[in-house]
């Protein structure tokens, strides 16, 4: 998605060979107009799938997921990272291992919002090692629902998450695919869908 690549070039900060800071439009301050365009792009990329709901994870997945849900006219559910006072019944949980933080965290979703006949689009802001997406997919499968696809805002294609998810047979679509962050420079993979 050209507008996103443009914004990454203009406003992204390369913090090292593996980390891109995008908190002026995605991870802290949010650009609603750009999110809206991303929602339209996700809706277009998954137009062949009969999506009934979108599942993401708090917090940075929520903005793009809601915009996709607006375009696709489906509800959006976000997995919680912390235990909720009111979210206690019928919990579906999964573990997410963070390679950078070297810790495992439990995420949870209420089973009451996922039905066995749901066809779920998983959305997240970053794809690195794929652990968050795999945990969301496990929750979908534990609910007896199916994963219709995985939509990612920024895929770091030099890490192994994309390969892992595609090898498992998931349809993964990323709005920007970064091939390298070496030498403080952002390089994109050419996107065959554009
Ligand atoms: P990891 O194993 O490489 O640590 O990746 P993991 O998927 O566990 O990511 C940990 C957090 O870091 C996630 O956010 C993820 O979105 C984010 N992340 C991964 N790579 C990058 C990157 O290059 N740039 C930025 N800005 N974030 C990245 P989170 O902690 O769940 O936070 P949030 O969703 O509340 O923002
Ligand atoms: Na994040
Ligand atoms: Na995230």
TrEMBL record:
<comment type="pathway">
    <text>Purine metabolism; XMP biosynthesis via salvage pathway; XMP from xanthine: step 1/1.</text>
</comment>
<dbReference type="GO" id="GO:0005737">
    <property type="term" value="C:cytoplasm"/>
</dbReference>
<dbReference type="GO" id="GO:0032265">
    <property type="term" value="P:XMP salvage"/>
</dbReference>
<comment type="similarity">
    <text>Belongs to the purine/pyrimidine phosphoribosyltransferase family. Xpt subfamily.</text>
</comment>
<keyword id="KW-0328">Glycosyltransferase</keyword>
<keyword id="KW-0963">Cytoplasm</keyword>
<dbReference type="InterPro" id="IPR000836">
    <property type="entry name" value="PRTase_dom"/>
</dbReference>
<dbReference type="GO" id="GO:0046110">
    <property type="term" value="P:xanthine metabolic process"/>
</dbReference>
<feature type="binding site">
    <location>
        <begin position="128"/>
        <end position="132"/>
    </location>
    <ligand>
        <name>5-phospho-alpha-D-ribose 1-diphosphate</name>
    </ligand>
</feature>
<feature type="binding site">
    <location>
        <position position="156"/>
    </location>
    <ligand>
        <name>xanthine</name>
    </ligand>
</feature>
<feature type="domain" description="Phosphoribosyltransferase">
    <location>
        <begin position="46"/>
        <end position="157"/>
    </location>
</feature>
<keyword id="KW-0808">Transferase</keyword>
<dbReference type="GO" id="GO:0006166">
    <property type="term" value="P:purine ribonucleoside salvage"/>
</dbReference>
<feature type="binding site">
    <location>
        <position position="27"/>
    </location>
    <ligand>
        <name>xanthine</name>
    </ligand>
</feature>
<dbReference type="InterPro" id="IPR029057">
    <property type="entry name" value="PRTase-like"/>
</dbReference>
<dbReference type="InterPro" id="IPR010079">
    <property type="entry name" value="Xanthine_PRibTrfase"/>
</dbReference>
<dbReference type="InterPro" id="IPR050118">
    <property type="entry name" value="Pur/Pyrimidine_PRTase"/>
</dbReference>
<keyword id="KW-0660">Purine salvage</keyword>
<comment type="subunit">
    <text>Homodimer.</text>
</comment>
<feature type="binding site">
    <location>
        <position position="20"/>
    </location>
    <ligand>
        <name>xanthine</name>
    </ligand>
</feature>
<dbReference type="GO" id="GO:0000310">
    <property type="term" value="F:xanthine phosphoribosyltransferase activity"/>
</dbReference>
<comment type="function">
    <text>Converts the preformed base xanthine, a product of nucleic acid breakdown, to xanthosine 5'-monophosphate (XMP), so it can be reused for RNA or DNA synthesis.</text>
</comment>
<dbReference type="Pfam" id="PF00156">
    <property type="entry name" value="Pribosyltran"/>
</dbReference>
<protein>
    <recommendedName>
        <fullName>Xanthine phosphoribosyltransferase</fullName>
        <ecNumber>2.4.2.22</ecNumber>
    </recommendedName>
</protein>
